[in-house]
Fold this protein.
Amino acid sequence: MSIMDRRISATSRRTLPLVLVALLALAAISLAAAQNTVAVSPAGVLVQGDPGQTLSGTLRLDNPTQDDAAVTTSVQDFAYNDKGELTFYAADSFPTSAASWITVNPVSATIAAGGNESVRYSVDIPTDATAGTHWAVLFFETGTANPPTTGKTLATFKVRIGSVFYVNVGESQPDGRIAGIAGVDSRPGLQYQFVIQYLNNGNVVSLLNGKVDVRNGAGDTVVSIPISREVALPGATRLLKANMAGPLPAGDYDALVVLDPNNMDQEVAGEYPFHLDQALAAPPTPPAPTGQSGSSGTAQSGVGAPSGGSQ
């Protein structure tokens, strides 16, 4: 999972409000790059240990920019609100926090333009740690300021890239189910949206992959919508969304939702019969690239090809 914040502050006669934009790509082990910032890999760490044990590993920071990047580190807690939106909190805000367990070396560094730096981390699990998943996010922050100009505001841009830590302690008790499925014509004639409510009853984090198979009255699958990897924290409910586009005629259908948690032996499934009042049109064909004439073919839509995944 990668987390990126971009914050803008200014110093003048007035102070601009804090602007926070968070991008969460859960459990994706990939580089994340942004202008005037570094990239961290892996973007998510999942480790298993027992109380009193110390776990360690290495993260890599890459600086793809043309300027040296001064990087500082910090650790925070995070959680999802009722709408599934990510919210950050001070370290050790929750009993499930792993923030105070994480130390890094070095805590700050300057990475040359086009260069990279290795950061060693340690996770010290307390002897009295409770069983189950504890979590936190390790942030790497860079900042740049525009040159001062007489009579103008000096703005500072700060960007934070995060690597999320999930620490499974002791005995894992995975358990989860689909608590509900709903559907809505989010864009009548163009898009139908499925909302899946997943309840993680276990004590460990679940990483979910899955799909929505839409079947017609004859039982044939006419649409298969992938659900990208999502995370469900222990003891919490997570809303997953999948968007369906056409071409698809109006009529009665049945949606079969299948989720595959990483820590359970069996898939989790649920059915949702629904009626499509209005036929869904095919997505528009993307325009040909500039400088090319004609079209190399039709946009890949098929029957009810998805227009989006979960969020």
About this structure: Residues 2-169 form a domain with the Immunoglobulin-like fold (CATH 2.60.40.10). The first strand starts at residue 2 and ends at 11. Residues 4-36, 292-311 have pLDDT under 50 and may be disordered.
